[in-house]
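Support reply, case 0932

Customer input (verbatim):
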Amino acid sequence: MPDRHHIRTRRDSSHCCSGRCLGPLSFYTGATGARVTLSLDARRAERVGNTFRDGLVFSSRPVRVQERVRLRVERSAPQWHGALRLGFTAVRPTYRTLPSFAIPHLTDTPGYWAGIVPEVCSHPGSELQFWVTPHGELKLKVLGTEKILLKGVDVRQPLWAMIDVYGQTSAVLLLGSKKKNLFSVQTSCPVPVPPPISSRDRMTSDINGNIFPSYTTLNLESLWPPTDPWYPISDNGHITGGSENCVVCLCQKSTVILRCGHQCLCLQCADRVFAIFRECPLCREPFTDLLDVSLAPS
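Our regenerated output:
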């Protein structure tokens, strides 16, 4: 049965929920990041303002094991590094102030699990599916390729989908969900056909003025080297070695020391944070200069 706490959405008047219906699926309106606006019956989430953070959203109801949440990237902000984060939480979303990031602010807390989607899979028009398996694996499917983002999700309790509209990803649209059973397929309540992605959003340029490549021309397997995951993750689903990597792009080594003493940014991201925020992303202490330890004499 659908969770009784889900928000009501407008559905096709001819639709009648049955045993094959998973119930309506939208974003929970009571707990969103500080920069998030919801539209299209709370199925579209957009991060507004000139920022890469504060884009957290959650599903309006618990998602079942093996229920694949379908998502489309709507818009990109290519001036930032990093992209979408996807995961699940066993903590019921409530009306409260949310942290700026899913990783590491929530994933360092018990009951939260999230993985990183590569930038190349997060361009406007990209459609993704993510779900949790009975073995607690967080899985992602894009262009027919399935990969495990992390392991260790606790499937013994209700789980809400968690999405961080982060970095280059600035807007996403829920397309619904489906769950394959032995002899049938269950789906979420039908929703209106989504509007097409605008040509302007599809032709988003990167920071150097180059057009994003069509990722149908890429070897997707090269994004998931067997011995080199996107980001080091331990068996319990937590990121390891986080202090060595930039908290913005999560891929470059953090070489910049701020006035507060935090060494949490790579030089490229530090320049952007300085130009826009001028405060530490961890403690928010203002800073007026940068010290790049990679340039220090050995």
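We compared this against your earlier run and they match. Two observations from our side: The chain has two domains: 36-194, 242-295. The longest strand covers residues 169-180. Please reopen the case if you see a mismatch on your end.
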